[in-house]
Amino acid sequence: MEFLIVSTLNGVIYGMLLFMVSAGLTLIFGMMGVLNFAHASFYMLGAYFAYTLSGVFGFWVGLIVAPLLVGVLGMLVERYMLRRVHAHGHAHELLLTFGLAFIFEELVKLFYGDFPVNYQRPEALDFSIFHIFGTAYPFYRIFIGVVALAMFLVLALLLTRTRIGMVVRAAERLPETARALGHNVPAVFLGVFGTGAALAGLAGAVAGAFFPTNPNMALELGVIVFVVVVVGGLGSLTGSLIASLLIGVFSSFAVGLDWSLAGALDVVGLGEWARGVGGLLTMTLSSISATVPFLLMLIVLLLRPAGLMGAKN
């Protein structure tokens, strides 16, 4: 029971973290159709900016200002780089952002070194919220989940209930009509890209105080974020949330399970034979837990190529 409860809680919180990072990418791809391979780098920069600012001005200032700085950087990237190659197709966008991801990583190593930094959460948030079978559960994990949930609600309301959301959706679906009505479509896209980058920066500023802040953090989540967007359905905010939670919970359980095919064959008396053969038959689920998101993506794409909440063509 302890394993069940703790793994579920950890999986949900990890899933909410994935959503925080993927929400910006979902917004950018859904609105602009831009394949931003450097999106996870904005997550990394948010953590490092928050770490630097918190050391001077305190944790809360870093948490607020770091996403704004990342958002401004994202706007500069869109205005002076991506906009120049957007007309040439997705391949040019992918190559450009792929190169930016390496540049950001090397710049972080240049200024902060190739090792984790000591980004600490404040004492006011560093306590146990409850105990599970004698195991203390940190409040900060719940804090991450609350911030992610608030992000989802604000984005959903902004896109569906406000004039800004109407303009953004109009610029996405009917850009020529939106332009004819007097809306500056390039400025809308600039704002969308900056907002998406800022959301990734907020995820890094929040999560970096709990998970290790290091130059490899973008690489660790970069591919998983794309999996989330694909599984949820390209451009679907709700789909990204569902996909993030599924991947988070499945990955959390997979890490703690030592199931294998040999163990399953014990039921029919072939377990010892399987262990003698070895190889794939004795490989435990925990040893291949990193492949769980990709397995889920494969299953979803086979059953529903548009993703869980994606629009069918």
Structure overview:
The structure is a single chain. A two-stranded antiparallel sheet has the order 1-2. The protein has 13 helices and 2 strands, in the order H-H-H-H-E-E-H-H-H-H-H-H-H-H-H. The radius of gyration is 21 Å and the shape is globular. The protein has a single domain, classed as ABC transporter involved in vitamin B12 uptake, BtuC. Helices cover 71% and strands 3% of the residues. It has 313 residues and is mainly alpha-helical. Strand 1 and strand 2 (135-138) form a beta hairpin. Helix 1 runs parallel beside helix 5 (139-161), helix 2 packs antiparallel against helix 3 and helix 5 runs antiparallel to helix 8 (185-207).
Question: What characteristics describe this protein?
Answer:
single chain, 313 residues, mainly alpha, ABC transporter involved in vitamin B12 uptake, BtuC, two-stranded antiparallel ribbon, 13 helices, 2 strands, globular
Measure the end-to-end span: 44 Å
Structural class: mainly alpha
Mean pLDDT: 85
Assign the CATH class: Mainly Alpha
Number of domains: 1
Q: SSE string, helix = H, strand = E? A: HHHHEEHHHHHHHHH
Q: So what's the overall shape?
A: globular
Strand content: under 5%
Q: What low-confidence regions span 5 or more consecutive residues with pLDDT below 50?
A: none
Main sheet characteristics = 2 strands, antiparallel
The CATH topology turns out to be ABC transporter involved in vitamin B12 uptake, BtuC
